[in-house]
Amino acid sequence: MAHMTISLLEIVSIAVTAAALATGGAASPPAPAPMEMPGCHTICGNISVPYPFGMGPARCYWPGFNLTCENTTTPPRLLLRGAGGDILQVDHFSLRESSVLVERTPGDVKIDGDGNGSIFSGGPDHGTYSIMLSDDWGGEGNELILLGCDVRVTLKHGNATLSACSTLCGDDQPHQPMWYVPSRLETSTVCAGVGCCQAPIVSAAAVVGNVRVQLEWFGRNRSADEERMPTRVFVADHGWFEKKQVSEPLLLRKPSARGTTGIPVDGVPVWPSWEVDTNISSSHGHGHVVCDEGTRGGYTCRCESNYEGNPYIPDGCQDIDECGLHPCHDGGVCTNRDGGFDCGCPPGTHGDKALPGGCIPFVSVTGRLLLTSARASIVDTYQLG
Fold first, then answer.
1. Across all residues in the chain, what is the average pLDDT?
2. Is 43 domain-assigned?
3. pLDDT for 293-330, tens place per residue?
4. What's the structural domain count of the chain?
5. What InterPro entries is this protein classified in (predicted)?
6. Three state DSSP letters for the chain
7. Whether the predicted model's global pTM rises above the 0.90 cut
8. Are 216 and 309 found together in one domain?
9. Domain for residue 123, yes or no?
């Protein structure tokens, strides 16, 4: 029988090697998931533009999702232009929610003498996947805001009512501008129905350009009501109007450093949402993508669970390295794999990490050092000198 002399340090080295074999070693972190088409310019000011939006050549954006970078301002502005004159300045993209945050200028909805108006009239129009009005998702999204006295506003798409609210002022109030508008909160503006009202938008099935606004006055003296609080309608990002620096100049008609009309000069923020016309989940090169049918015949797409990135470009959804989130408990060793991860026993132990107490230490038998694992088994006999 062969005999050899080995030091304690070498024994420890062998044990560490076996433990590494048991855990499979550390996987190299995946490359950042791409967000745009190769060879396309995607930066405008401080905003990065993800596909399907894009600038420049047609290959850089999905049809109907082209944007313009206006370099005459500092910083440059990313613009989504409407055919009817609306200028939408892009502030933020949400691929997960298929939405984009824009600033609308002018900010309020234009109403004619009969009390009718529309949202985004002349906005981007490219079939079933043009930009839509978004729902109130996750406590964010949009809300309807009405300023005025003794008036009701209704937001409609076809015969469907998307939102509505009413304001009262009372016939016993003096015919002069209101000097106080009550709020439900002290530190922010939440309309109580006197002078203004707010309402969530409960449906997103609204095609851009077909979202109608209808006003109905029910007071005794409309001209007196207008003197107390001019009627104005906004569709805006939830939480925008609650800021005192926004609502007070609008309600009390105070001059504002942000604009003498009371409307912030940088526009009113609103979330449109969008769809594409193709279900790309079965397309070649679009692996790990899930597409859901939208409200207008198009699709919204996302990466599968355990993947992240941009589902709209080939190979845009890439594996998430879950080990960076430290998902293994009780000292378990994480090994990342495509679409998931595995938890192995801590170094110096072996067994089944999924079972309580399933990891047991490596054992030393008289005259033998037994090292076992799921991938390697090292057995040898050593004679300590």
1. 76
2. no
3. 887 778 899 999 989 999 999 889 989 888 887 777 77
4. 3
5. EGF, EGF-like_Ca-bd_dom, EGF-type_Asp/Asn_hydroxyl_site, EGF_Ca-bd_CS, NOTCH1_EGF-like, WAK_GUB
6. CCCCCCCHHHHHHHHHHHHHHHHCCCCCCCCCCCCCCCCCCCEECCEECCCCCECCCHHHCCCCCECEEECCCCCCEEEEECCCCCEEEEEEEECCCCEEEEEEECCCCCCCCCCEEEECCCCCCCHHHCCEECCCCCCCCEEEEEECCCEEEEEEECCEEEEEEEEECCCCCCCCCCCCCCECCCCCCCECCECEEEEECCCCCCECCCEEEEEEECCCCHHHHHHHCCCEEEEEECCCCCCHHHHHHHHHCCCECCECCCCCCCCEEECEECCECCCHHHCCCCCCEEEEECCCCCEEEEECCCEEECCCCCCCEEECCHHHHCCCCCCCEEEEECCEEEEECCCCEEECCCCCCCEEECCEECCEEEEECCCCEEEEECCCC
7. no
8. no
9. yes
